[in-house]
Amino acid sequence: MNRNFENIKILLSIKRIRYGLSILIALTAVATLVILLSPFKYDQISYNVHLPPLAPSTFHWPHILGTDSLGRDVFTRISYAYILDVSCGLAVIALSGAVGLVIGLVSGYLGGVVDGILMRLMDILISIPGFMLAIAIASVFGSNLFNAIIAVAIVTMPIYARLVRGVVLSTKESLFVLAAREAGLGDIKIVTKHILPHVMPIFITQATMELSNAILYIATLSFIGLGAQEPTPEWGLMMSVGRRYIREAWWPAVFPGIAMFLTVLSFNLIGDGLRDYLDPKKRLSS
Amino acid sequence: MNNEVLVKTVSLKKYYEVRSKFLKRVVGYIKAVDGVDLEVGRGETVGIVGESGSGKSTLGLVLAKLLQPTDGRYLFKGIDITRRFPQSLRGKIRIVFQDPYSALNPRLRIEDSIVEPLIVQGYSRREAIEKSIESLKLVGLNEQHLKVYPHMLSGGQRQRVVIARALISEPEFMILDEPTSMLDVSTQAQILQLLKDIKIKKKLTYLFITHNLALARYISDTIAVMYAGHIVEIGSKKNVFSEPLHPYTRCLISAYPSPDPTIDWRPEIPEEIPAIRFHGGGCRYVDRCPLKREICTRQVPELIEVGKDHKVRCHLYRVP
Amino acid sequence: MKPLEVRRLSVEYLTTRGWIRVVDDIDIDIDERGEILAIVGESGCGKSTLGLAIAGLLPPNARIAGGYIRIFGKDAATNPVKVAVVFQDALASLNPLLTIGEQIAEIYLHHFKMTRKEAFEETRKRLKDVGLPDSFVDRYPHELSGGQRQRVLIAMTIAMEPELIVADEPTTALDVTIQAKVLLLLKDIVKKRGIPMLYITHDLALASHIADRVAIMYAGQVVESSDRYSIFREPKHPYTRALLSSVPRIDTDIDELYIINGEPPLPGSFPKGCRFSPRCPIAFERCFNEEPTLKSIAKSYIRCHLYE
Q1: Labelling C23: which of A164, A258, C134, C307 has CA 20 to 30 A away?
Q2: CB contact, 8 Å: C226 with chain B?
Q3: How far is C26 from chain B (nearest CA, A)?
Q4: Looking at the domain assignment, is residue C88 inside a domain?
């Protein structure tokens, strides 16, 4: 366990990870506080339409970020949206990551015909524009967040598959894998005990970076109407609706954008920092 | 030395197919191991000596059951294990590789690596760890080394761990593929002594693969010289060195300087010929041999016995 | 002018633990043109770093922390000196996209400003020098065997017309038979052309046949230095003796190799006093506390309390 503490210390010493983590923690803290303490509900419609930021309300505190076209408090909605969007992002990477990981492992390890078929499949998937697929799914199964998650997961899955496959290909030729085989280890054990630990760091780094992409993707789909539907508090949706009245009231469109930007930035920083952690560390320790 | 033949191979072959680029048709073969007849007695150390391309490492991998031979037979303790390797015999044949730096998974602690052969055989983790401590003691390490990661150990220590992992399944036959070539001179001497000691303690039989003829001379009882997939000379250490028969053996011996500078170093090395592939007929050494004759280009010589415990594969010699 | 004069040379590397001394206060000499000095040692002794320092090829995280290197009287730190290096890995040192001929000719075209015709003429001569046929001019590195590639490197080295050659384990990656040919070729060329050479190796037997003088390095220091015959006939330092008796020999049967206990110390953790003392079979109290200095006895140098 000592080694893990060492690793965490090293991770935290990387500036990017510190900054990213700080922003993330700050955002999470703010969102949690707002959700717990806000007197407004996220779908609470009122006659107080397009009130500017810091406008007083009938409750004990003002609409800090104003209200939208249906009189709902923007700050409250953004905070719920934070939880929702990040959760959706996590759902996407969990789904695409899990499937991509398995495909990459199987494809890389078995090689031959299986590898050929799976990789061609990945090629097909990766060439489908995500929006086309989302539209197709939406037209058959309906436009909602769940379907949007599925669409994005399908389209981003090949990234993991390819990445994992690459690591598996190089690792499976290592001497210690041969030694493990010589010791009598079966294929499954070899993959889980020897190859997987080499795959995980790169996989996790990629997943972290993909998380921000996933959030953006979901938000974009919602923006064009294929994802979240009213009254769901979702950044893309909020920006889409707010866009129409942007001349009269900029805040219902801009603040969700800022929140999304900060969230995506924090995950990008963390992912970037993780990538640095993986690379030079190996050089130093040898 | 016992007369029991522990390991026997009959015309063992390992060919690799070479395919054309477009239609993937087989256009030829790389004959890495091309008909090796070997007999290793229990308690013996056979030194397999060869340069790159000789097939010695491939032979080692085949004997370790990591590669399936293309043809020929492999008998262990009289049992034919060419196609099927019974579970009861796994663990009796173990291999130690050359590179201690990559033979151990850098992300696993020593204890996780070393117990593998036993876990596979069905031992519980606790039993396996107990046995691994015994094994570590045999190689001059101790319990503390279980918890560390490979990068914390020196090259010599890592190789000891690799040897301990091989010993843990109570092998009878150990294949050592250049076990010291990546180690320092002083470490090499230690590891060689260790190997000699445990051979006696654990009643082992060794196949020692090396490119270093001087090393083979030190550690082996029997020397087998390999060239292009064939054994070209094999015999007791005394016979091979006092009377090297095959032109290649003589060439090899001359390539090593004595540390004594007053003994002139006059290597007799013919020109190098790159890759050995798609061989037609005839002796493999014919392109480089200074004593070649017409028959050498046509016919592969047989491995014939020219004396007690001395065989050579060369047209220069006839059965006496 | 002596081809090589190194005095009190120290080289340090910058690591996460600060500056670590890898070469410590070294004195070595090459007295005549065409003389070969071998530096023999195990890993971690600093021999490769010494070679790099002399060749002026230290990486950015290394520095010369003391002493000087004079090549034919010129201070190597401030003057441009032509030192050619022959590395171990020929494949990495050759450009895979250019033919052998182009790579050798390039030296003549750029360094010596010759015309293409002249350059290729010289190139063919160099190929002949190293025993390779003319046809190799049009071959690519990957089409050659390891030994042939190493010979190309040697050809390029001669083409540079260097003042000094540093050969760092130039044949370790080659088969033994090829190694013999390449090394003797290198020695022949160097002797014929009178180029001084520093030959770095871990193999004492090779050193005693290739070099005129041999210096044994241990833990960043020279512990013994002598001519090739004396090193074998009358080795003085316990480490030299241990090295000689711990290696298998081709010409005789040995019952037991001499074992030096422990492992060579790494830079940054050199022992106190004599650096070999923890492993020395005849160390006495003074050895553990006081570092011996390099003394000269006849034409040899020895760093050991037994000889003071």
Answers
A1: C307
A2: no
A3: 22
A4: no
- Residue C139 contacts B, CB cutoff 8 Å: no
Is the minimum CB–CB distance between B190 and chain C shorter than 8 Å?
yes
- In three state form, how does the secondary structure of A102-161 look? HHHHHHHHHCHHHHHHHHHHHHHHHHCCHHHHHHHHHHHHCCCHHHHHHHHHHHHHHHHH
Q: Which parts of chain C register pLDDT below 50?
A: none
- The answer to whether B236 and B69 have CB atoms below 8 angstroms apart is no
In a domain, residue C91? The reply is no
Mutation target vs A (from B58, B67, B107; most A CBs, 10 A cutoff): B107
How confident is the model over B31-41, as a mean pLDDT? 93
Of B51, B218, B253, the CB nearest to C175: B51
Tell the residue number behind the tokens 């939406």, with chain if given: A138
Does the predicted model carry a pTM greater than 0.90? no
Any bridge partners for residue B206, and if so which? Answer: B45, B174
pLDDT at B320: 66
Say if C228 is an interface residue toward chain B (CB within 8 Å).
yes
CA proximity to C123, closest of C147, C102, C145: C102
**pLDDT at A285 (0 to 100):** 42
Q: Which of B90, B103, B121 sits opposite A176 (nearest CB)?
A: B103
Tens digits of per-residue pLDDT, B196-226?
999 999 999 999 999 999 999 999 999 999 9
User: Average pLDDT in the A236-261 region?
Assistant: 91
State both tokens at B15.
């060919």
Residues C67 and C210 grouped into a single domain: yes
Q: What is the pLDDT of residue B278?
A: 55
- Residue span of the structural domain in which C134 resides: 96-160
Q: Cα-Cα-Cα-Cα dihedral of A224, A229, A230, A231, to 10°? A: -130
Reported as a single tens digit per residue, the pLDDT across A17-29 is 889 999 999 999 9
Look at residues C129, C144, C160 and tell me which one is the last residue of a structural domain: C160
- Name the closest residue on chain C to residue B250, using Cα atoms: C177
| pLDDT value of residue C188 | 93
Considering the domain architecture, whether residues C192 and C273 belong to the same structural domain is answered as: yes
Instruction: Select the residue from B272, B285, B287, B288 to test the C interface by mutation, using most C Cβ atoms within 10 A.
Output: B272
Q: Does any domain span residue C118?
A: yes
